[in-house]
Design goal:
It is a single chain. The protein has 165 residues and is mainly beta. The strands form 2 sheets. Strands 1, 2, 3, 4 and 9 form a 5-stranded antiparallel sheet that branches. The chain has a 4-stranded antiparallel sheet with strand order 5-8-7-6, with no helix packed on it.
């Protein structure tokens, strides 16, 4: 065994991972659509339920597991539903259930919302993360693993070669 092979996922390691996430049998996110993700393990860069499962995995290892909502995107928050007067929406937005919008809050932070229902006077919006309250079915493969550099640890995230997110 070369030293390279004995490395396993631990805190302060930079993990490169191929992944697919399914919810209710449908693929909601997958690295097949883009490049594998790279992140610093143990620094809350990915949801906790994913981090927990990766400890001890070596390059080439694959694993499938289910992440409960509390370790994923949280439970659905009933308070994250809001009724907004129809008059506040620009005319070009189709006000139909299921339409996804981006809204700015008072601080100028962008929040994603989905229209739940559209009445004559008010539009009901759901600000919950689309995956809140959902069980996430992950299939992952660790494709790269290395010790983080001092700079990465200081910044709390991985610095990919020539990639800017």
């Amino acid at each position: 065994m070369s030293p390279e092979k004995s490395q396993v996922v631990a805190d302060d390691m930079v993990v490169t991972m191929e992944y697919t996430v399914k919810v209710d049998g449908e693929v909601v996110d997958s690295s097949e659509d883009h490049e594998p993700i790279e992140f610093l393990q143990g620094h809350n860069q990915v949801i906790s339920g994913l981090e927990k499962q990766l400890y001890g995995m070596a390059v080439g290892d694959t694993k499938s597991f289910v992440v409960a909502p509390r370790d994923g995107y949280g439970e659905r928050d009933p308070d994250a539903i809001a009724d907004v007067p129809r008059s506040e929406f620009p005319p070009e937005i189709p006000l139909e259930p299921g339409v996804e919008l981006q809204m700015e809050d008072e601080d100028g932070d962008v929040m994603n919302a989905v229209i739940v229902s559209a009445g004559e006077k008010t539009i009901r919006l759901d600000f919950n993360h689309p995956l809140a309250g959902k069980e996430l079915h992950f299939s992952v493969q660790v494709v790269g693993l290395r010790q983080a550099t001092a700079e990465e640890l200081e910044h709390g995230h991985a610095h990919s070669e020539g990639h800017h997110h």
